[in-house]
Amino acid sequence: MAQGSLDGLKVARKPSEIERPEDRLDKADREALSLAIGSGLAAALDGGLDGAPRVRTSLEVLGRPGSFCVITGQQPGLLGGPLYTLHKAIQACLLARDLSQDWGVPVVPIFWNHGDDHDLAEVNHAWLKNRAQDLQKVRLAGLSSGRQPFSRIPLDRETHRLEATRALVTQTYEEHLHAEAAVDLLFPRHGETLVRTLTRALTQLLGEHGLVVLEPDWIRPQLSRALSDLVGANPTPALIQGSGDQPAIDPASAALVFRVGDTGRRPLRPGGEGFAYDGEAGSRTPAELAALILEDLEGWSAGALLRPLVQDAVFPTCAYVGGFGELDYHAQLVVAREHAGIQTPAFVPRTSITFIDGSTRQALARSETDVASILAAKGEFTRGEALDPPPVIQALHETTERAVSELLSLKGELKALEPALTSSLKRAIEQIRKATGKVQDKAERVHANRSGKGERHVRRLNATLYPRGKPQERVLGATGYLAQHGLGLIDALWNELPSISTEHLVVHLPDLEEPTADASAE
Questions:
Q1: pLDDT tens digits for range 236-254
Q2: CA distance linking residue 28 with residue 317, whole number of Å
Q3: pLDDT tens, 289-315?
Q4: For 411, how many CA atoms within 13 A lie in the half-sphere containing its CB?
Q5: What would the pLDDT profile of 254-274 be if each residue is shown by its tens digit?
Q6: Which of 39, 323, 457, 483 is a plausible cystine mate for 182, CB 3.0–4.6 Å?
């Protein structure tokens, strides 16, 4: 497929469609950037950079004129977040390798670990597939709401019940050979933030392929200076001009800048003479806000629309790997980039992947179906061969309703005895219906598993390939797959996956009895 263009944003469908950009970064700025990231990573990792020689090499070449970088990123989540976080990181490494070979210059893969975000409800949980092949949600206690960036929220044993949650995750996967190592890699340790856990995990998984994981706090001065330049030039009119009638993010009302203080992040949106805080009278002109940012370089961060511009003002970006949701708002930024004099890197759609392991292949065979049918049904696949429910299920329902009816017939007498007793009767009836309803639900579930050929396997397939009505990579995490296959899974994916794919890939993982991980994509 030829290279696409979406309102001036180049969408690359293969590496050869990515143009080598002009190197506009000052040598001193490059060196300072490389040193700042290296210092942050060395402090974040066990043993510093001594255990990550390829990462050290990536940082060294990033500090030299003429090198470029492929950037991707994702907010951190419990157990590393959904699978597409890992997919993005691998793809950035593969694409950097291919471009480096094609251009004959170093290209560094960078993963932007979005520690500035603050929506805890999106990251405080993970979905596991338990031994019954049902989805199970695990959540960290004490993380429900707030305005503090993720990078400012260290986790501890007591408040966040780390040990109890870790034990639950370990128990879920303990039958697998690499379970303990996988949980140790992806589960947060006492005192870590979710951001730091992801930095540690991705570096261990992909450091040998040169991936540089970046926490924005490490280069806050560089980011804030770039943000000040953008704000001072008043980007709002250019953002509005480039956004069309139905923007993914409306620049007229979006939080373009955040002030980060003791109480968390306070958004500033377009308003008044330039920018205004929510719920506060008055505003700041672009020049005033730019000056305020320079006065306190550690106290500001860019919103979603300005973050890509800040990122590419600081880094020598040649390509960005992102999902189609990101593509929508990146396309809004072309005019703003021209206004600010920032190059527009190629946008590379994230490769979409579904993993198929040995147990899933068995379920497919016993259900006499295929992956395409399950994915097309979006988690609601059924064989349509279930037997009629046994009479006991209907009898349970009828018995409950008879009991409720008889209890209700006593309402008048109870009211005459004591009016308050009618409320007690109502609560008793609700409890009876709830309790018997649970028994009925379990009976129906057992029947569904036993009736028809492969119904239990159909349930497993829906929960594995399209859980909760969403693609596998958006719900399930990497823990279960790493527990089964260990770090060899990464090597197998590295050897098999293309750097860019325009089609959804189905990746077949080996049966568990095989001694080493291998993979094949179709």
A1: 999 999 988 888 999 999 9
A2: 17
A3: 999 999 999 999 999 999 999 999 999
A4: 12
A5: 999 999 998 899 999 999 999
A6: 483
Contacts of 117 by beta carbon, 8 Å cutoff, 6+ apart? 75, 123, 149, 150
Calculate the alpha carbon distances from 226 to 51, 113, 231, 260, 342 in Å. Answer: 32, 18, 9, 17, 11
- Backbone torsions φ then ψ of 24, nearest 5 degrees: -110, 0
Distance CA 228, CA 282 (A): 20
| DSSP annotation of 253 | T
Which residues lie below 8 Å from residue 325, measured CB to CB, with a gap of 6+? 248
**Whether the Cβ atoms of residue 103 and residue 20 lie closer than 8 Å to each other:** yes
Helix 194-206, helix 27-44: angle, nearest 10: 100
Pairing assessment for the beta strands 125-129 and 107-113 based on DSSP bridges: unpaired
**For 485-522, how does the pLDDT look when each residue is reduced to its tens digit (9 = 90+)?**
998 899 989 999 999 998 999 999 987 644 444 566 66
Q: Please, what is the Cα angle at 160 between 158 and 163, to 5 degrees?
A: 70
406 residue type, one letter:
E
What's the gap between Cα 210 and its chain centre? Answer: 21
- Answer whether 441's CB lies under 8 Å from 344's CB: no
**Strand 68-74 relative to strand 317-322: parallel, antiparallel, unpaired?**
parallel
The structure's pTM equals: 0.85
Residue in 289, 284, 83 with CA at minimum distance from that of residue 186: 83
